[in-house]
Amino acid sequence: MAVNTAAVAARQRFGRELKRVRENTLRGGRRVQQIDLAKALGRTTYHRYSQIERGTSWPKADEWRIICKYLGMDAATKTALSTMRSEGMSIASAWWTEFQEGFPESLIEFVAYEDAAERITTCGVNVLPALLQTEDYARSITTGVAGSVLSPDMVERSVALRRGRRRILTKPDQTRVEFIFSEAALCQRIGGRAVMAEQLDSLLDDVASRTVTIRVIPFSKPATAMYMGHLLEFAGEAEKPISVIDSQTGMLFQRRQKEIRETRHYIEGMRKLAVSPQESLAMIKSAFKELSRA
């Protein structure tokens, strides 16, 4: 049985945040230690509590009540961590777990973070980011890039995974997503004229009916995006942003403040190169109109 990497990532994320809260809590003039909480849980050693902070186990309901009370969590912190716990524990039945086999573990972990994010900013290059792709566009890209090493079944599973990720754009509390990419992504006829026309029409629909912002970097600009990267931001002050670099072999996660700061600078640089969302929409409409009459 494949390891549910998304569930592991959720536990580890919860454990890191719980550790941060513990290390910033004082009782009797000193910082709370793991053994203190272990004793509060009725344990003689720290091992059980250590499992929770290391992300190897979720706290049970009674354990979680004791931990919250012992650490004297304020309402906001308790709500944020309780939500992280309940959502994380539900991942075992999340839709993406059926894709554990055959895909990089880091990609499945990324999908779990993507699903939990409140806001996502993606800088693309010369192709449209996966969240924007139609089935036929995704199929053409996947077949062209990896068709020699992937079976037809795996190509279809890859397409299904990409389409499944679009659920964040249609759920009740839609994730706010901003995409920045080169004009080249609008011009190359991936899959042929009909496929690309459908893809451009889908972009127009995403902008019109979903919480999607698109910014295009025109050919006339002196530079363009150099790599596919993402910044995932979460609700609540307790949730720290994650920067992710998208590569052929998987996803590289960056969490240090310096890395997040550099990613923000990169994104801001790409925003300055791109035209406004309104001008970008006009470019998409123009490309669609040209294909429609071709």
Describe the protein.
With 294 residues, the protein is of the alpha/beta class. It is 52% helix and 13% strand. The protein contains twelve helices and eight strands. It has helices at residues 5-23, 34-40, 47-54, 61-71, 75-89, 105-116, 135-146, 152-165, 184-187, 193-209, 257-273, 277-292; strands at residues 26-27, 30-31, 119-123, 176-182, 212-217, 229-233, 242-247, 250-254. Strands 5-4-3-6-7-8 form a six-stranded mixed beta sheet, sandwiched between helices. A two-stranded antiparallel ribbon has the order 1-2. A hairpin with a 2-residue loop joins strand 7 and strand 8 (250-254). Helix 2 packs across helix 3 and helix 7 packs across helix 8. The longest helix is centred in the first third of the chain and has 19 residues, at 5-23.
